[in-house]
């Protein structure tokens, strides 16, 4: 059963990556066992990569924002501060500089490479050097995370489009929200999230009769804790409907008070 656990409302000119950066920590607090987060290409950023690493969350991105590199450089972490850099034809160990890291490739092999003109490694006297830092490693790792998943788990994110359709169903014929303003929109979004969760919980319970048996048991036990008078008055609390029994609505309010 998939439930909505966090709702954020921002102006439509707010970058998606900024929204995720502000909400990922509250999401982690609500779901401490969260270790994998699927998003589209708009949610990736350098700040998010650092925060995901800090929270030990694997960020799976289903698309890449920006232009694809003509020559890919794959950076893998060997140990703390040590990396292995792979290009299409070579693999070398990194060297640490004062502010970043560098990978030095054999210039003779590079001369024979058909991709040398578009390579991001800089030509020097007797080698070609590729400079990078920790953020470049995290970026490449995020882009490769989806490849480490089995094929059946690589398309989990598109399922959220059905949830988006549920949110936009009450829109007017022009596809616009019927209210205006940040506060009203926030109220609408949270109310819709609650109703969507209720619907999913009800459908889940309907498909699993064991939950109805548990609710019947609770309905039979809880009134005994609240009843203070005779058994005849206790029986007035119940409203029986076939196999289920529920407390009358006014009795809920009385008990809550």
Explain what you see.
This protein has 257 residues and is an alpha+beta fold. The chain folds into three domains: 16-62 and 154-203, no CATH class; 74-134, no CATH class; 211-256, no CATH class. It contains nine helices and eleven strands. It has helices at residues 16-30, 46-55, 107-111, 134-144, 160-168, 182-207, 209-226, 231-235, 249-256; strands at 36-39, 58-61, 74-79, 82-86, 91-93, 95-96, 101-106, 122-123, 127-132, 238-241, 244-247. The strands form four sheets. A four-stranded antiparallel β-sheet has the order 6-7-9-8. The chain is elongated, with a radius of gyration of 28 Å. Residues 237-257 have low confidence and may be disordered.
For the biggest sheet, the summary is:
4 strands, antiparallel
**Spatial gap, N to C terminus:** 32 Å
Widest beta sheet: strand line-up: 6-7-9-8
As a percent range, the share of helical residues equals: 40-55%
Low-pLDDT stretches are 237-257
Number of extended strands: 11
The 3D shape can be described as: elongated
Mean pLDDT: 82
Structural class: alpha+beta
> What is the number of independent domains?
3
User: Could you state the order of secondary-structure elements as H and E?
Assistant: HEHEEEEEEHEEHHHHHEEH
Query: Helix tally?
Result: 9
What share of residues are in beta strands?
Answer: 15-25%
Radius of gyration: 28 Å
């Amino acid at each position: 059963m998939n439930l909505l656990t966090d709702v954020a409302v921002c102006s439509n000119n707010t970058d998606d990556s900024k929204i995720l950066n502000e909400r990922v920590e509250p999401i982690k607090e609500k779901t401490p066992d969260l270790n994998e987060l699927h998003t589209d290409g708009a949610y990736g950023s350098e700040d998010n990569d650092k925060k995901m690493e800090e929270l030990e969350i694997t960020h799976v991105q289903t698309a890449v924002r920006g232009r694809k590199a003509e020559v890919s450089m794959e950076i893998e972490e060997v140990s703390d501060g040590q990396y292995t850099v792979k290009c299409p034809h070579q693999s070398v160990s990194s060297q640490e500089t004062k502010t970043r890291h560098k990978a030095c490739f054999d210039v003779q092999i590079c001369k024979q490479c058909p991709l040398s003109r578009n390579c991001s490694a800089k030509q020097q006297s007797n080698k070609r050097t590729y400079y990078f830092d920790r953020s470049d490693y995290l970026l490449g790792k995020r882009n490769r995370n989806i490849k480490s998943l089995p094929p059946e788990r690589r398309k989990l994110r598109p399922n959220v489009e059905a949830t988006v359709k549920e949110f936009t169903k009450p829109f007017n014929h022009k596809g616009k929200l019927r209210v205006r303003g940040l506060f009203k929109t926030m109220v609408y979004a949270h109310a819709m999230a609650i109703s969507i969760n209720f619907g999913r919980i009800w459908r889940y319970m309907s498909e699993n009769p064991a939950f109805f048996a548990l609710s019947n048991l609770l309905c039979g036990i809880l009134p005994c804790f609240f009843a203070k008078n005779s058994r005849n008055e206790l029986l007035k609390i119940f409203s029986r409907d076939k196999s289920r029994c529920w407390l009358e609505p006014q009795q809920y309010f009385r008990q809550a008070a």
